[in-house]
Design brief:
Layout lengths: L7 H6 L2 H6 L2 H21 L6 H9 L6 H11 L2 H12 L13 H37 L4 E6 L2 E7 H25 L13 H6 L4 H14 L16 H29 L3 E2 L19 H16 L1 H8 L8 H29 L2 E2 L1 H26 L4 H22 L5 H6 L8 H7 L9 H19 L13
Antiparallel strand pairs: 1-2, 3-4
Helix pairs in contact: 3-4, 3-7, 3-10, 5-6, 7-8, 7-14, 7-19, 8-11, 8-19, 11-12, 11-13, 11-14, 12-14, 13-14, 15-16
């Protein structure tokens, strides 16, 4: 409906896969799965619940009667009880045991945890594929010399591939943290209204062992190794802050990449993909704006700032729980995942299709390398009997004059020609040109790329090979 606001996170940026995880259908179907798991576990532990009732609940997990729930919620102003009522209409035999002993957070919080875990697994899949794409790029260009930059000023040479390993390494750190959070996630479980499990103690006649077992059984049905040992009414909102901090870290890495690429595109050295019919500017038809990289930065910034929301929420929960978390949480958590999904869709698309202009890169190297090579030329000349102090002064004079012509008149850097023409150095043209071969100034950058990919990246790609093959998906 075009008359109402539609979040661009769904319509423009996030994948259908990620959007579905935060959909009403995913949420309410998961509520029903939780009610089935609770009833089934309570039955297995001896409560008066029949197999027929459990079967009826299972048969109606996916055909959610939304209209009944929505009408009821307008009447009673409670979303969970509205869906308990609606489920009961479809399951008349089981109506009396739906949600038995539970509080709203049993379905609300546990569903959030299930969804966030699935969303993090999807994030991991995309990060792995970005790493894979950048690794291929790094290996392909591991030996192509390029200007390094410190303070955004030309510095000692590196290689195009070596620079890519810096982007990859940040993602490896992010992946390590992401894996840690996924593997350490706990379920809220079956804890009751203030976390004391009092209602379940009543149901099981104060049999603590059965109540403990119920909590464990339900968690295991959803693939969680354990539940939080203690909770208030909710699981600790500290977890939301940890998760969004992890998303923020990934966004930071993507943001860094996008800024580097925007600078490289400005220098016409490396570009993001630019399609045949793509328009860079409505006014300036010649422009090839780095629109995808800019969008990565825009969405990444949103994720980074959004990570403050659960941090503040975690700080302001009073005693066992206050409801000021709810409205903020349902916006902040979902939008962080959707925005980061948009970031990673773009990152993967760009990383898979980077365009390198090696001749432009070489021309920039040739313009700056003579200044960097003077120390090496000096050493070679001294080895042939030259006076270090006199030659140093000759280089200083030649350098100043060459730099003046470059800066004041826009001329080419002729420093090397000046040195070749200066007999004081006692070096032939060939000897000097051999000294200033860019390959002599990249250290072990190619070896670093090989070593890094072989020893740090490939083992992770092999371990996660079932996640490879993700296709980049961008809408605009």
């Amino acid at each position: 409906m075009r008359t109402l606001y539609n979040t661009p996170l769904n319509s423009r940026y996030a994948s259908k896969e990620m959007s579905y995880l935060f959909s009403d259908e995913m949420k309410f179907v998961t509520w029903r799965k939780l009610w089935v798991a609770l009833a089934e576990s309570e039955k297995e532990l001896g409560l008066n619940i029949t197999e027929e009732q459990v079967k009826e609940l299972k048969e109606n997990i996916y055909n959610v009667n939304y209209e009944d729930a929505e009408l009821k919620e307008k009447e009673i102003r409670h979303d969970v009880m509205s869906h308990v009522y609606a489920y009961g209409l479809q399951c008349p035999k089981a109506k009396g045991i739906i949600h038995l002993g539970a509080t709203s957070c049993y379905v609300g919080d546990n569903t959030d945890l299930i969804i966030m875990r699935e969303a993090m697994i999807l994030v991991k899949k995309k990060v792995i594929n970005v790493i894979n794409a950048l690794s291929r790029f790094a290996l392909e260009y591991k030996s192509l010399p390029t200007l390094g930059f410190t303070h955004l000023q030309p510095a000692q040479l590196t290689t195009v591939g070596k620079r890519a390993t810096l982007w990859i390494q940040e993602l490896l750190l992010d992946l390590e943290n992401l894996d840690f959070v996924i593997n350490k996630m706990r379920f809220r479980g079956v804890k009751g209204t203030t976390g004391t499990q009092a209602s379940f103690m009543t149901l099981f006649n104060n049999d603590e062992e059965k109540v403990i077992k119920l909590d464990k059984m339900v968690a295991e049905k959803f693939g969680f190794v354990e539940s939080f040992p203690v909770t208030g009414q909710t699981y600790t909102r500290k977890l939301d802050s940890i998760i969004l901090n992890t998303l923020s870290e990934i966004a930071q890495s993507a943001y860094k990449f996008s800024n580097d690429l925007r600078l490289l595109q400005s220098m016409k050295e490396v570009e993001e993909p630019f399609e045949k019919n793509q328009i860079g500017s409505s006014a300036m038809a010649y422009k090839r704006n780095p629109m995808r990289s800019e969008r990565i930065g825009a969405l990444a910034r949103f994720v980074i700032v959004d990570s403050l929301n659960p941090a503040i929420t975690a700080s302001t929960q009073w005693f066992e729980r206050t409801l000021d978390d709810s409205a903020n949480k349902r916006i902040a958590i979902s939008e962080a995942f959707l925005a980061l999904d948009g970031v990673l869709n773009l990152y993967l698309n760009v990383a898979e299709n980077l365009v390198v202009y090696d001749k432009v890169i070489s021309s920039h190297v040739d313009r700056e390398l003579p200044f960097m090579a003077t120390e090496n030329i000096l050493m070679e000349a001294v080895k042939k009997g030259g006076d270090r102090q006199e030659l140093h002064e000759r280089i200083r004079v030649h350098s100043m004059e060459a730099a003046r012509k470059v800066k004041e008149f826009g001329e080419e850097n002729d420093l090397i020609h000046r040195i070749i023409a200066d007999d004081s150095f006692g070096l032939s043209k060939e000897e000097i040109l051999n000294v200033i071969d860019p390959a002599n100034f990249i250290g072990r950058a190619p070896g670093q790329v090989d070593y890094f990919i072989s020893n740090y990246v490939n083992p992770i790609l092999e371990e996660n090979k079932d996640l490879l093959g993700q296709k980049s998906e961008i809408n605009v």
